[in-house]
Design brief:
Largest sheet: none
InterPro entries: SPW_0924-like (IPR048001)
Shape: elongated
Order of helices and strands: H
Helix content: 40-55%
Protein name: SPW_0924 family protein
Radius of gyration: 21 Å
Distance between the termini: 68 Å
Strand content: under 5%
Number of strands: 0
Length: 44
């Protein structure tokens, strides 16, 4: 029974954190229109 209560408290805390972050909103800013390079371009 203690494990069930601990799981319920943990789930409630996690949901509260998610709702708080959602209410505050994400960081302001823009994303770059250029794609990220994952490899070094080959030189001829």
């Amino acid at each position: 029974m203690r494990a069930l209560k601990a799981a319920a408290v943990g789930l409630a805390a996690a949901l509260a954190l998610v709702f708080a972050v959602t209410a505050i909103g994400g960081p302001a800013g823009r994303t770059s229109p250029e794609p990220l390079l994952t490899t070094v371009p080959a030189h001829p």
